[in-house]
Amino acid sequence: MKHLHPIMFAGTGSDVGKSIVAAAFCRIFRQDGYQPAPFKAQNMALNSYATPEGFEIGRAQAVQAEAAGIPCHTDMNPLLLKPQSDHISQVILNGKPIGNKDAYDYWRQGTSEIDFRKAVCDAFDRLTKRYNPIVMEGAGSIAEINLKDRDLVNMSMARHAKADVILVGDIDRGGVFASVYGSIALQSPEDRQLIKGIIINKFRGDMRLFDEGRKMLEDICGVPVLGVIPYYKDIYIDEEDSVALEQKRRQLAEGKVNVAVVLLRHISNYTDFDTLERDPRVNLFYTNNTSDIQQADIIILPGTKATLDDLMELRRNGCAQAIQRAHRDGKIVIGICGGYQMLGQTVEDPDGIEGSITSLPGLGLLPIHTTMTPEKTTRQVTFMFEGQECKGYEIHQGVSDTAEAILQTDHCIGTYIHGFLDNTPVIEYLLKDKAVSTRSEQSLADFKEEQYNKLAEYVRQHVDIDQTYKILTNG
Fold first, then answer.
1. Which member of 266, 396, 418, 462 is catalytic?
2. Which of 18, 19, 2, 24 is nearest to 454 (CA)?
3. Rounded to whole angstroms, how far apart are CA atoms 399 and 402?
4. Using CA atoms, how far apart are residues 182 and 170, in angstroms rounded to an integer?
5. pLDDT in tens, 225-265
6. How far is CA 64 from the centre of its chain?
7. pTM value?
8. Is 87 a catalytic residue?
9. Marked catalytic residue, from 26, 221, 337, 390
10. Is-contact 38 27, C-beta < 8 A?
């Protein structure tokens, strides 16, 4: 196949759709006979994933690798920041945690013994030797000029990669002309030359109404608009950011199995519930309303990046007591990862791994005690449930005093396994006495393949793919 330049999807801001557009192009290039791979030098997210080798990367790059049809690898996201508070993040380098960093210190030059720039560039260089093309993703806005000299993921990375940059703007939030034009105008002449196209994302309404706007944008920016992608609701790709949860605060519904996911302040890996949410028998919603929790049929305590802090908040806002009452009333309670730890007898943090809280009693629904430790467990796993083999992955800090991968007591289940609820035997076990309609027979793998193909076809309809290929070959 012809060699293509690396392509970077950069943004006018956060949550403009860079991750989804990059996933779409990973699938498009694969469909067209290329061997693409995703790359994001630095990611900040609580949604992460375990590679086959047992290392940790951002969930978005794992999704993009899946769209590209290849195993995920740490070179696809060499630097991952997992926020633990407003100012502190855990730093994951090449798949392994290397400690916590204050945001101010992280962004100050010369304060780290590690050359992060060299690390991310080395990862890109290794990746580009194996795949063609590299589908790169920027982070946030490319116009944060106060951080430009410390930028590792946007235009500095594009310069290193000699990438063709496609700027993605979100028209749904308003101000798209100013954000696109300003993002380009604020670049240095050198960086401005790298921006080869514009994609307008999340358009609502009659596309013809933007024809004049498209021409105006090209005239003022001097860059072609490669496409305008309409807003969609019927394609399901794993989300990267918790912004999506704001749209999932639904209420109790009659005629469905009501599943309440307890909304934690530091919730992580909420993609654990996507498969269950899509089941036609289920009404799944996120809440910290104590009444909704007590009335739900199934209550799930999800993963968290700050187990002790969220456990204290559950006690403060009454959710802990609501979960305990629901359990006494015979409702099913499930804890995953940090939620599993909270369901135990105690959570101890004698070394201050998570912060200043050294010990808290758990909800007392499971016979385990957990101690936070500096070491982190990251691995893909297989397990047996109801006599059938299932798959998932672990990413957690802390050790509990049980060797059981899944601990079950009276209508209470705890596990460290993310992806636990992606498995049909688990879902059928939970819904067998509550089902009100037929379940889907489609496997998760087939469903994901269908969604990636739908996404690729949708983007092909609204983006000039031929012009994109010309850019990637001719510059």
1. 418
2. 24
3. 9
4. 14
5. 999 999 998 899 987 655 556 556 667 888 899 999 999 99
6. 11
7. 0.87
8. no
9. 337
10. no
DSSP H or E stretch at residue 47: none
> Residue 233: what pLDDT?
86
Share of the chain above pLDDT 90, in %: 80
Distance between CA 262 and CA 267 in Å, rounded?
Answer: 9
C-alpha span between 101 and 97 (Å, rounded): 11
Tokens of 469: 């290929």
Three-state SS for 364-432 is: CCCCCEEEEEEEEEEEEEEEEECCEEEEEEEEEEEEECCCCCEEEECCEEEECCECHHHCHHHHHHHHC
Buried b (16+ CB within 10 A) or exposed e, 123-133: bbeebbeebbb
- Give catalytic status of residue 418 as yes or no: yes
Q: State how far the Cα of 270 lies from the Cα of 285, in Å rounded to an integer.
A: 11
pLDDT at 242: 54
Q: Which residue type, as a one-letter code, is found at position 27?
A: R
Whether residue 440 is predicted with pLDDT greater than 70 in this model: the reply is no
Question: How does pLDDT run across 201-218, given as a tens digit for each residue?
Answer: 999 988 888 999 999 999
Radius of gyration of the CA atoms of the chain, in A? 23
The length of the chain in residues reads 475
Over residues 325-349, mean pLDDT? 97
Nearest to 414 by CA among 334, 347, 342, 346: 334
302 neighbors 270 (Cβ within 8 angstroms): yes
On the CB side of 151, CA atoms within 13 Å amount to 23
The predicted structure's pLDDT at residue 153:
95
**Residue 302: its pLDDT value, please?**
97
